[in-house]
Amino acid sequence: MRTLMILGVFGALVVSLSACGGSSAGSASEQEDTQRQADLYAIGQIQTTFHKALSTKDIELMMSVWAPNATITVGPGQTLAGMKKIREHWLNSNPFQPPNRWVAETPAYKTRATANGDRGTLFFECHLIDAKTAKVVAISGADTQVARIDGRWLITRFVGATGTLNP
Q: What pairing do the DSSP bridges indicate for beta strands 119-130 and 112-116?
C-alpha cells in the first residue's frame, strides 16, 4: 500500500513538472502579446496623466510625459522644441491660467494607440469643461509620437489637432 502511495505521488509530480515545460514558441508568442498589451496600456496612461495635469494645473506632472528632446506643434509654423519651450507653452496656455477652473477629459473611444517595439503613436481628443458651468469650453486633439526611453513611454512629437463633438 505504501509503495502504491509513493508511486502515485511520484506520478503526480512527473505530470505536474511536464506541464511546466510547455512549448517555447507558444510562450514566446504569449510573452510578446503580453508585452504589447503592457506597452499599449502604458502609452494610454500618457493621456491620463496629460489630462490630470491640465485639470490640476500641475506643470511638473505635465512635464513628466515629455521626452527631453520633444517637439510640440501648436499651429502652422509654430513648432517648439525642448523641455523649456514646452513648459513655457503649457504655463501660458488657457487651461493653466488661474481664473480658469477647467476639467480636462477624453472620451475613451476617441483614443487610439499603437506600439511597435520602442516606438508608438497616441491620438486623443481633449475636451475641456468649465467646472462652474459644466459647459464645454474647448475641444482639441493631439496626434503624438511616443517612445520608450529608459523604460518609460514619453511623448517625442506632439501635433495639436482639431477635435469634434461627434463620434
A: antiparallel
Between 127 and 2, the more confident residue is: 127
- CB-based contact 70:82 (threshold 8 Å): yes
Residue 8 has pLDDT above 50, yes or no: no
Which three three-digit cell numbers place residue 118?
520602442
Say which CATH topology domain 30-162 has: Nuclear Transport Factor 2; Chain: A, (3.10.450)
> What's the longest Cα–Cα distance across the chain?
86
Name which of 66, 62, 65, 122 is nearest 95 in CA terms: 62
- Long-range Cβ contact pairs of 56-62 (< 8 A, separation 24 or more): 57/95, 57/96, 57/98, 59/87, 59/90, 59/91, 59/96, 62/87, 62/90
d(CA 119, CA 44): 13
Q: What are the grid coordinates assigned to 162, written together?
A: 482639431
So where are the chain's domains?
A: 30-162
Distance CA 118, CA 36 (A): 10
**The pTM is what?**
0.80
pLDDT of residue 5: 42
CA proximity to 100, closest of 108, 90, 87, 86: 90
Return mean pLDDT, the chain: 86
